[in-house]
Write a structure and sequence with these properties.
The protein is mainly α. It is built from 11 helices and no strands. Helix 10 packs antiparallel against helix 11.
């Protein structure tokens, strides 16, 4: 919703004073026409600008990632992480939102093939939306299709290099298939982005002992 007046120029009727230029000079009919014109101009702006999107392209994320990496307060870090995740989820598209909701519900019910169908639609309709790829990668992981999961998690990181969820998930796959050195380097990258990932520091410590002396 647009607020199209500027203080001291076009004021809401309730704020107009007797000495206000527009309130004194413009007749009620002209004032009505002016308001219609402003609304029309705002509508044209929306149509030309296209859908509002945040997702992984939101410029606010750079400062949030910096704050997350440098934070030493767990409670503040959790709040920053939640804000990042909210931004990631935003699409500006009701149809994509609906597909993501249906996919999430299907995953909750462990109806993975149904979820996969919804997520296939998401990545086809919104190929630059990282969370669509992340969701599909997660379904591939849940159903032990590791090769496809790795490809999709890699694609997430092409779209959002700081996606700590994708780094952590990739590391878990490497760990489960016995590629401990790759798992260690990937977990370390996840911790660089988000030092407060639950259980990640402990995994890194264990792996450091196992891969000591091996190339990473």
């Amino acid at each position: 919703m647009f607020r199209v007046f500027r203080a001291g120029t076009l004021c809401p009727e309730k704020d107009c004073q007797p000495e206000g230029f527009f309130c004194d000079v413009v007749s009620s009919v002209m004032w009505f026409q002016m308001r219609i014109g402003i609304v029309f101009a705002a509508l044209c702006f929306v149509l030309m600008a296209g859908p509002v999107r945040a997702d992984q392209t939101d410029p606010l994320l750079d400062s949030l990632f910096e704050a997350l990496a440098q934070n030493d307060d767990p409670n503040e870090a959790i709040a920053i992480e939640q804000r990042i995740r909210r931004i990631w989820r935003e699409t500006g598209s009701p149809s994509i939102d609906l597909l993501m909701t249906r996919a999430s519900l299907a995953i909750d019910r462990q109806e993975y093939e149904l979820a996969l169908r919804h997520l296939n639609d998401v990545v086809e309709l919104a190929p630059d939306y990282a969370e669509g790829w992340f969701g599909r990668a997660s379904v591939y992981y849940f159903t032990d299709r590791y090769d496809q999961a790795v490809l999709d998690f890699d694609h997430v990181l092409q779209l959002e290099r700081n996606h700590f969820g994708a780094w952590a998930s990739l590391g878990q796959i490497y760990l489960e298939i016995g590629k401990n050195a790759q798992a260690l380097s990937t977990f370390r990258r996840a911790l660089e982005v988000n030092p407060f990932l639950k259980g990640m520091a402990e995994k890194v410590k264990r792996l450091e002992k196992q891969v000591e002396g091996q190339g990473i």
